[in-house]
Amino acid sequence: MRRIVRFPGKRREPRVEDLGKEAGLIVRQRSSTGFSLIELLVVIAIGLVLTGMAIPMTLNAVRSYQLTAATSAATGAIQTTRYQAIMHGYSYEITFTPGSNTYQVFSMIPPANTYTAYATVGTTTLPTSPIPLSGSNVSISRTVTFQFAAGGTVTETTGTPYFWITNPWGGSNKITVSGVGNVSVSSP
Fold first, then answer.
1. Is 139 within the bounds of a domain?
2. What is the pLDDT of residues 54-89, one digit of tens each?
3. C-alpha 168: how far from its chain's center?
4. How many Cβ atoms sit within 10 Å of the Cβ of residue 188?
């Protein structure tokens, strides 16, 4: 029987399996060091496509929110003016102006017989100025004035109790006020 004697310090020849393991390790290290140029270009292209789809959707959402905000501001101002007339017991008036896209509230404090741009807050009378509708890029269709009696009934000075708020991209809302002060909003 033969014995294999190994001497310390003598180097053993590498076997084929050992070379394969070392080669695999080297390949794995190279593949995990970064991305190829093609992979980066594919990711950038996907990002550009998604951005191109998201921008128009975001702009449409912003325009819709602007129209909704302006409509809410107008309906809230109409309802608040009616409540002021009922609460104070004298006539109020609200005028929407298309040139400046503003509204202004007037009151007729007895014994006066004309409307003035003053509002009573508690015991203090303060001058009021035109208030812009919230939501930029919206417009009012026409000048409209609603007069509220102390009992809450409403008259419109031209006889048509509605007006439109539109944005330049095609959205619009019709605001209608009934004779008893109910405010409704409809879209075409």
1. yes
2. 988 888 888 888 898 999 999 999 999 999 999 989
3. 16
4. 8
* 137 in any annotated domain: yes
Q: What are phi and psi of 41, to 5 degrees?
A: -65, -35
pLDDT digits (tens, 9 = 90+) for 15-49: 555 555 555 555 455 555 788 899 999 999 999 99
- Other beta carbons within 10 angstroms of residue 82's beta carbon come to 23
The CATH number that applies at residue 116 is: 3.55.40.10
Alpha carbon dihedral 130, 135, 141, 142, in 10-degree steps, equals: 0
Angle (CA) 183-92-179 rounded to 5° is 35
Name the pTM for this structure.
Answer: 0.71
